[in-house]
Specification:
single chain; 18% strand; elongated
Length: 407
């Protein structure tokens, strides 16, 4: 029997009992579909994170004082030394403080206020302004009590009854260092959190979103004039970020007689860490989902053994007519492979559709790669071979005389 006839025979056997064939392939559907869906969503989420960092710029760095005591604070003079380094595109002072916010219902929320100079929101963080304007040098110089808030915070505080444009000019009360302060909203910046969130979920974002006010204002409120606890900057493209930030750390430690008094973060390090965590999580979940592939493989082996039992007499007839063991072996292996490959293709399709649907709900664009197609194909072939060889071998080793006597 040539390969074409063998394939026709295998297809006839699979379509002869459609319900049994579909149930046999169910484990493969679920396994491959789940893995493809997880990989596509994981890749899509990783890409969105990478794109976000790319928009900000991978040359961005931040240095924090580890222990906030007077002798450790960075001075304006040291900031100027760093600013004059050849590799530095820009560097600015920053500060932050915990605050308490009350909404129009009198509900209490804790949040974080960032004292930021205009260059931070314009050039380093690159906030996309949806309404209003960004912080300016005039706000800084005149100690303007103004604030830049996130889109999700705007929705949480004012609901959907007001547009972003209507929220501009509204006031919010922030209690910083036990001092109540009224700030006028001058701008609303874009985040990825505002879409498809309920009111309760929006309110949770208040604590995780930054409220940007002029650096000079936060200095004044906290009494931190001339004491810099955070500096943020950007390294010119082409320079080694690790080397430059290490130099900055050495300068600060030497001037303050410290061994390791400053925490350095670069966006490259953060991105690498995020990618490593996401890849580990994706791999773990994929491994768990792959268990169903083993279950599906066992199901295929089981049904192939049943098929051999049902077709014992047919195998006996073929052997009596001169069919070699190799032909019998090839036929049953091809049947198992056809089962797993068809199941793999359907599973891949289900995973593709599922990833798109779940991605649209989670606001993630699922990403599909050639490696996912290869995974689906190779996995299907391997499972077909591993779990189809034993039943095929059993069929090939049947004694023709005993097989012909079978009922």
């Amino acid at each position: 029997m040539d390969i074409r006839e063998t394939l026709k025979s295998a297809l006839k056997q699979l379509t002869g009992n459609k319900a049994r064939t579909i149930l046999t392939m169910l484990g493969m559907f679920i396994g491959i579909g789940a893995v493809i869906m997880i990989l596509a969503l994981g890749t899509g989420f990783t890409k969105s994170i990478t794109d976000s960092f790319g928009e900000i710029g991978l040359g961005v760095f931040q240095i924090n004082v580890k222990e906030e005591v007077s002798e450790n604070y960075i001075t304006p003079e040291e900031l100027e030394i760093i600013r004059n380094m050849e590799a530095i595109e820009c560097v600015i002072a920053g500060n932050d403080a915990d605050a308490v916010l009350y909404n129009h219902k009198g509900e209490r929320f804790t949040c974080e206020v960032q004292g930021a100079q205009p260059e931070f929101t314009n050039n380093i963080a690159k906030q996309e302004i949806l309404a209003g304007r960004n912080l300016t040098d005039q706000d800084e110089a005149s100690y303007n009590r103004c604030v830049l808030i996130a889109d999700c915070v705007a929705q949480a505080l004012f609901g959907h009854s007001l547009s972003y444009e209507e929220i501009i000019g509204e006031s919010i009360n922030l209690t910083i260092e036990k001092q109540p302060n009224s700030f006028t909203i001058i701008g609303i910046y874009e985040t990825s959190m505002a879409s498809n969130l309920s009111q309760k979920e929006l309110e949770k974002t208040i604590g995780s979103s930054d409220f940007f006010i002029p650096y000079s204002v936060l200095e004044q409120i906290t009494g931190m004039e001339g004491k810099i606890s955070i500096i943020a900057g950007k390294i010119i493209e082409g320079y080694d970020q690790v080397s430059i930030t290490t130099q900055i750390s050495q300068i600060l430690n030497k001037r303050h007689h410290l061994k390791d008094g400053y925490e350095i973060q670069t966006y490259v390090q953060i991105l690498e860490m995020v990618e490593m965590i996401l890849n580990t999580i994706t791999l773990f979940i994929s491994a768990v989902a792959s268990i169903s592939l083993v279950v599906g493989g066992v199901g295929i082996m089981n049904i192939m053994l049943v098929t051999v039992k049902e077709r014992t007499r047919e195998i006996g007839v073929r052997k009596a007519l001169g069919a070699p063991n190799g032909a019998i072996l090839k036929q049953f292996i091809l049947e198992a492979l056809m089962l797993t490959i068809i199941a793999g293709l359907i599973g891949m399709l289900l995973g593709y559709v599922g990833a798109i649907l779940i991605g649209s709900v989670m606001n993630i664009q699922a990403q599909f790669t050639l490696s996912m197609l290869l995974f689906s194909t190779v996995t299907s072939v391997v499972i077909g071979l591993v779990f189809g060889v034993y039943p095929a071998y059993q069929a090939a080793q049947l004694d023709p005389v005993e097989a012909l006597r079978a009922d």
